[in-house]
Amino acid sequence: MKPLDIYHQYPIELISGKYSVVSDSEGKEYIDFYGGHGVISIGHSHPNFVNAITDQLDKLAFYSNAFKNSLQFKLAELLGKASGYETYDLFLSNSGAEANENALKVASFCTGRSKILAIKGAFHGRSAGAVAITDNKGIQPNFGSEMQVDFIEMNDHENLDKLLSTKDYAAFIIEGIQGVNGIWEGNADFWFAARLLCTNTGTVLIADEVQSGYGRTGKFFAHQFNKVITDVITVGKGMGNGFPVAGTLISPYLKLEKGKHGTTFGGGQLACAAAISVLETINAENQIDNAAEIGEHLLSELDKLNGVKALRGRGLMLSIEFDADAKAIRQKLINDYGFITGFSNPDILRILPPLNVSKTDAEKFLKALKSILENI
Ligand SMILES: Cc1ncc(COP(=O)(O)O)c(C=O)c1O
């Protein structure tokens, strides 16, 4: 047997990491401006994270949700405090797709409706429900094609108003900031209108914060820049700093009967220990402030570079478009300067470094990009 050959991969094997630096099997070091696809929040192998997981492993790695787990209560309390959603309930799972699947299920159970309204260009994951609300025919199988989903453009007030004035939809789902599609966000008026219309029609407003959450944008959740409260929020990626853990935060007004839903692995003791260490470290090291500060610095300095065509994003969730071919620039960044970056489509460079990335590393990145753009 061998792993399914389904990913486009760099022929580089990364074998160790510390904070923002990762090393390959040949001993070459890279500065990680991609965070393993937006997953690394508090830094690779942060000692708090390593100690928390190691200590928990010595005690109990896992027991199912058939028994009480006080670590889940501690995690929920910390997450409530960090996010401001203190009265919400937390359902734990293992991936962003699952967190979204669970959000859709809660919305459908609580409204009795089945249709979902989503945003064009969105990415919500690859399980049946999550991929159905992801606007990309290329990754949708026929299985699940019966799901009823309508899509509107981001910031299309007219269609938002028209469609969300009905009581047809169980939920309206929107990313805090669209990540995979290249960093696009709803404006404050759009969010405000969505909140109002959802309240009036009993539609559940879901914010997918799997990529944009956990402090990445300089606030705990990206939708909080727009001063709205949503009914359900989904989290993943940075929640576990590499340990697979995700969650669905559910308004106390949405009630689920016992036995309606469940999971085997979700909220296991190791996952909770990892997620608790992440929240404690973000807080103790003021990492959200660092994300805001370094992000602002990067945006203002990138804006001065010749050859940068467009810049979007907040904090450490940024996209850069160039006059030149972004693919070639990305290749030079990794080969010649040791910077790992992401992309959104071949034309957009996406950067998602750990939240504690240093100003020194930001300066090195700016210098590398300047030199590439001057010589391309
Ligand atoms: C906004 C958003 N939602 C959901 C997902 C799916 O998360 P996962 O790959 O953990 O299932 C992603 C993954 O990139 C994402 O960016």
* CATH 2nd-level architecture of the largest domain: 3-Layer(aba) Sandwich
Uncertain segments: none
Which whole number gives the mean pLDDT?
Answer: 97
CATH superfamily of the largest domain, by name, is Type I PLP-dependent aspartate aminotransferase-like (Major domain)
Question: Which ions, cofactors or small ligands are bound in this entry?
Answer: pyridoxal-5'-phosphate
Total domains, how many? 2
Based on secondary structure, the structural category is alpha/beta
For the sheet with most strands, the description reads: 7 strands, mixed
Broad CATH class of the largest domain: Alpha Beta
Query: Rg to the nearest angstrom?
Result: 21 Å
Which features would summarize this protein structure in a list?
Aspartate Aminotransferase, domain 1; 376 residues; globular; binds pyridoxal-5'-phosphate; Aspartate Aminotransferase, domain 2; four-stranded mixed beta sheet; 2 domains
Can you describe what's shown?
36% of the residues lie in helices and 18% in strands. The strands form three sheets. A seven-stranded mixed β-sheet has the order 4-10-9-8-7-5-6, with helices on both faces. α3 runs parallel beside α8 (269-284), α6 (157-164) runs parallel beside α7 (188-201) and α9 packs parallel to α11 (359-375). The protein has two domains: 14-46 and 287-375, Aspartate Aminotransferase, domain 1; 47-284, Type I PLP-dependent aspartate aminotransferase-like (Major domain) (Aspartate Aminotransferase, domain 2, 3-Layer(aba) Sandwich), CATH 3.40.640.10. With 376 residues, the chain is an alpha/beta fold. The protein is built from eleven helices and 15 strands. Pyridoxal-5'-phosphate binds at residues 95-97, 100, 123-125, 175, 179-180, 208, 210-211, 236.
